[in-house]
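Mods, move this if it's the wrong board.
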Amino acid sequence: MAEFEPENGVVTTRRDFMQGSIAVAGSALASSMPVSAAAQPKEKRPNLLFIYTEGQRADAQGIAGNPLLKTPNQDRIAQEGVRFNNSFCTNALCAPARATALTGLYSKTTGARSNPNNHPNQPLPADIPIFTDLLHKAGYEVAIVGKVHVQNGVRERYWDYYFGFNAAVTNYYFPTFREGRKGVIGKPVTYKNKYADDLVTDKALAWLNEKHEKPVCLLVWYQTPHAPFYRPRRLLDLYNGVPIPKPETFDDDLKGYPGKPRAVANAHNKIGTQSDLDDDARSLEELVKDYYAGLVAVDENIGRLFEHLEKSGQMDETAVFFSSDHGYFLGEWRMFDKRLMHEPSIRVPMSIRYPKKIKAGTVREEMVLNTDIAPTLLDLAGVPVPDHMQGKSLIPLAQGHGQPEWRKEWLYEYFEYPGWENVRPNRGVRTDRYKLIHYYLEPQEFELYDLVDDPGERNNLYGNSQHAALQKDLIDRMQRLRKEIPGKDSLEQN
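Not the wrong board. Structure tokens:
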């Protein structure tokens, strides 16, 4: 008998949840905008630039203290704005994380739980607005360039400009994109000898250089650093001769993975000796150097965007939001990829620069999530945040206001199985100090960590009688959070 079973009942379905709250939010948006305009002069709305990287872990930045990686343009966003030191994704996988960033909703609620493969994956439902839908209705021009990768439901939305691909990765040197304007998207086109993210930046700059009568919201979503980690030609020799330190847990597999459940030991995301795909990592040195070089290329392209904003006089008129879809293992427990709930996989960088509202050098320690991205961007634009969104605007934190009701815990859920890397479904709860991970398919397994005493997650406390009360408390918290988050009807059994 399992220690506890998944809940059989559903308090609120996704359909009921969305129908009620979106109707309220829609009427609020429709009514509040004209009244505000009539009652007082409108404050000039900022342009919005949302830069999103792929699989960039939180410590893969110069400002985070990385001894090898230099990211001056990413660092600038944090130095001249706010940096969130405890930022996380709620499902460490590309497509689900991107759906969450767009909707402000958990994967369980949107139904976008996995990447498109042999695991059931639901299109993003048409009844769930993405934040750019709301910005467009509020008078913004909206554009997205780069890696979109949300199973349906994004290319189908309205975009003043679209240049994207809906997949995990496109060929780095012969990339294929669809391009479109005013809601009409063309057929795929392959570009020869163009490094994918350089091309994305070219297209972003070309669109910004056009005449715009309205404020703009531009999403620049880079695919780097994603396997197979190709570099641009200009960086092929970067890090030659530079030693790469080995993580303390790199050789734990040779010891039988002490304290780790078999779900971790048997996952296929291991450097060097297991391969599901042609682009799996072959050595620690190759992985880390190519991963870092890709991020240098991203940072150079961000610098190109900033150069345009400076020359056009728009730098301080533009709110810049920076983050990544999920983290990444770089050799911890000999792992690469993501999916698991350990810190390298779930921690992401997050920062905002907008000097008109955010003081330079602000640092916040609260736990913030990718569910908070959409509400924050709407708040920056002065657009009401719909009640159905499960995240919160980060602007009060960014402005230094105390938030006594800020979240003290949050739920993580990963669903894709069977699939690439053979990572078993897992869920868990994280507080500011503790983490419980539950691999819920039989045989059920658990991990429990004190992140203050054991930030490297090496000492699994689960099953230790001294921590029985803590263990029960965290399980109860996880179950309560699961009940509070409505699920897509047909998927609620898990």
